[in-house]
Amino acid sequence: MTRAELLPWRESVPALRWGIWFGFALLSAGCQGNIEGALPTTAQPIPGASGGGGGASPPSTGGQPTTCAAPAPGPSPLRRLTHREYDNTTRDLLGDANHLSSQFSREELFLGFDNNATARGTTTLLAEQYMSAAETLAANAVKNLRPLTGCNPDDAAGRDACANGFIDRFGAKAFRAPLADAERTRLTTLYASASSAWGFTKGIELTMAAILQSPRYLYRVEFGTAAPAAPNVKALTPFELASRLSYLLWGSMPDQPLLDAAGAGQLTTREQLATQARRLLASDRCHYVMTDFHRQWLGLDLIDGFDSVADGFSNDLRPLMRQETTQLVEAAIWQGGGKLSTLLTAPFSFMNARLASFYGVSGPSGDSFEKVALDQQERLGILTQGGILAAHSHAAKTSPVLRGKFVREQLLCNPPPPPPPGVDFTVAEKDSSLTVREQSEIHRADAACAACHRFMDPLGLAFEGFDAVGRYRTLENGKPVATSGELSGSDVDGTIDGPTELAQKLATSTQVKSCVVRQWFRYAYARDEVSEQDGCNVASLESNFASSDGNIPELLFALTQTDAFQYRSVAAGETP
Fold this sequence. Notes:
two-stranded antiparallel sheet, about 50% helix, 25 helices
């Protein structure tokens, strides 16, 4: 990215411009590993041969390493905070819960997630939006200047000392690590220039605004230690590990106990890292990350754009469908033993009167959501929830293609091949009297279509017992609905009759467990698992997930114990 793309500024605030340039210079130098004093250099490498590999054999896939003896973290991309992480961080740093990221440019998805480093460039527009947000946050913060700075702003003689102390404290919290001498000098100089021109309050405000749009705040900048853990590998510093822990498990900045542990050198061994990981996992704040992952993995955001013409469907149902899935995730993972199999085959869901009435389910009588026992011949687990079914349907009718593609991509990690060019997607839709199953059969009879549709349609047809908006049905166009289908290309192949049977099969699948591990890998590390160096990381995670019987919180813990989490690779051209 260019300086112009990352750092536009207001010509009317020269002191702030200078502060932003300091931030860009820091990021530019840091990315090359050439900046001096940017982070503490006293951290010791985490001992041990491999990050959580425990000597596990790597996958048998061709091209993967044959040993797990040395740390192999794989790529270590520079990560910009997601919009949600930005909001969480500003809330925890400043107590501001205004969700300013709602004004930012829309985030791009890559591999199903909005945090993938590949798709997280910074445009000129986004940089301008970051500046506006920083100015707004700083202007609001200085309205309560005494608690913000911790000193008396009316004491003219003590203002400079007050400002210097504030810069040290606030800067360290915002950057998630103590300020380096060069950073401190630049910020105090910025404050002095601004306060001389516009007074103490404005000086604090503009210094805060510079900090809040610095790459050190907006990015998770990592340099690692000078001591090599292996050729072309660096161990992360305790403060870098603290940030990795908090953003993985809480989606936000480290809390004070975690920063204190990093400052005291208590994140330098695997045991110390594990202790802090367990503490963060035990906090209710971890629920946010669990919800965020499942929101993206299951495609729940698609409900917002779902504009169905089905009778009885209205906009008020969208948030209710979201809440149904969110509460099932919460119950299955945090109150139900944490197992993936529970999520797939739970014989219960959560509804209020409005949603239950829409589904044709009896029980709830008010606006509050209640736990509802399901008819297990009709519904079972997340795959039969209205939000999931609607998110992968067309507006007017069901889509075995979209539903089958969802299962194959998100639960089996076995996406179908792309369609060949020139395919007529409407060939089977010209006769409206046909059922969706009959249209599907015509598609698959065409050799040009069959190559792709044979992977998706037989899976998606198992869901035909539900209409486009997730209501159970037995008739379509006056004809009985058949829910027979077939699962192929997996370790649990066979015929299936309906989504409940499919869910039960998937819950026993080793391939599904492996796929969920890979989905979490992509979400946790903001990248794909394509590198040869990831063989041991993935093997370790799959082994741990299998030994825990598919326990998802334990998978999160295992994600903090890999080489990919605890080390970083030295980039090309960087000094090891």
